[in-house]
Design brief:
It contains ten helices and 19 strands. The protein has 346 residues and is an alpha/beta fold. The radius of gyration is 20 Å and the shape is globular.
Length: 346
């Protein structure tokens, strides 16, 4: 089968790969239909690592996808051949202390698609996934919508962790697909005003389309002063979604006393810092957001009910053979890209 693999820094190749095989009775063979490219995939493309997760070449990335069931295992009851499914890329063991505590996303033996040392990714024609990772979608749901359920689930989970009061004022620093997913979820959960920033005009426009009350470019004005003028008591929560030190500093300044800073973005550096005096005096809460935890189905439900419409963020589509071009586009933030999808079958 065809597969796209990393072979070095900023190097991707289209190669033939062995056909995947079902090993367990509850495994499902899927035809991969649509793959969403994520910022973490681009991290691996540009640097070959995220923290301690280092790529050993060749390696296949990709974890956001929708597919069609080809062959379910003999013990599978959730799906049948021909079903279209959204897929949760996290494959927990189900047995460890974290799984028993309903923290499957921090499972001690977690296998995650496209994560070095855990599992090869989904930039290929066929793949095998556990039954519990497959979520059937309704006939009216498109494969693109199904593929977007995974990034949307991260935004859904981040907002759930924030425990926003009704009528909250929140900030989102970084309006890529994850920041936009947070924005959609925050609005759906009752945030009264969302203030969003980014350095790319196309993403600011996307944030406005998603319902941001105000958007700002951090290099073209005093973001802190502008938001404080509109929200004199400052913000209940800030979601840092770009992994930048400047955004972390800005988040601390924007939060009201007792506010919550949610760390969603992935920094490319090994250490970040905080202005501890302000952090202490405001008694701010820091909350890391690790992917998502059992939120693919709730996110999919919101898409299928029409409550959330994330498809507006898709700006570019590529066939599998042009996946290297898609990665290069994303790495350079070119052509107004917000979200790029790879369609496996032309």
């Amino acid at each position: 089968m065809k597969s796209v693999v990393l072979t070095g820094i900023r190097q991707l190749e289209l190669r033939e790969a062995p056909e995947p095989e079902r090993r367990g009775a509850r495994d499902v063979l899927l035809r991969v239909e649509v793959v969403g490219l994520c910022g973490s995939d681009v991290h691996y493309y540009q640097t070959g690592r995220i923290g301690s997760q280092v790529v050993q070449y060749p390696f296949r990335v990709g974890h956001e996808f929708a597919g069609t069931v080809l062959e379910p295992g003999p013990a599978v009851t959730r799906v049948k051949p021909g079903d279209r499914v959204a897929v949760d890329p996290a494959m927990p063991c189900g047995q460890c202390d974290q799984c028993r505590a309903r923290r499957r996303h921090t499972c001690r033996a977690l296998r995650f698609l496209g994560c070095p040392g855990q599992a090869e990714g989904c930039l290929c024609e066929r793949i095998v996934m556990p039954e519990e990772c497959c979520f059937p979608v309704r006939p009216a749901t498109t494969l693109e919508q199904a593929a977007l359920a995974e990034p949307l689930s991260i935004g859904y989970y981040a907002v759930a962790l924030a425990a926003l009061p009704r009528g909250a004022a929140v900030g989102i620093l970084g309006c890529g697909p994850i920041g936009l997913s947070v924005l959609l979820a925050a609005r759906q959960r009752g945030a009264a005003a969302v203030y969003a920033t980014d350095r790319l005009d196309a993403r600011l426009e996307a944030a406005r389309r998603a319902g941001a009350a105000w958007t700002g470019h951090p290099d073209r004005g005093d973001v802190e002063a502008e938001i404080a003028r509109r929200e004199p008591r400052l913000l209940d929560a800030v979601f840092e979604c770009c992994g930048q030190q400047e955004a972390l500093d800005q988040a601390v300044a924007l939060l009201k006393p007792g506010g919550k800073l949610l760390l969603v973005g992935i920094p490319q550096v090994d250490r970040v810092s905080f202005p501890i005096d302000l952090l202490r005096r405001k008694e701010l809460c820091l909350q890391n957001v690790r992917r998502q935890n059992e939120c693919v189905q709730p996110a999919l439900d919101l898409i299928e009910s029409g409550a959330l419409r994330p498809e507006f963020m898709v700006t570019h589509r590529f066939p599998l053979e042009r996946a290297p071009e898609a990665f290069d586009l994303l790495a350079g933030y070119r052509d107004g890209v917000v979200k790029a999808l790879v369609r496996i079958r032309s």
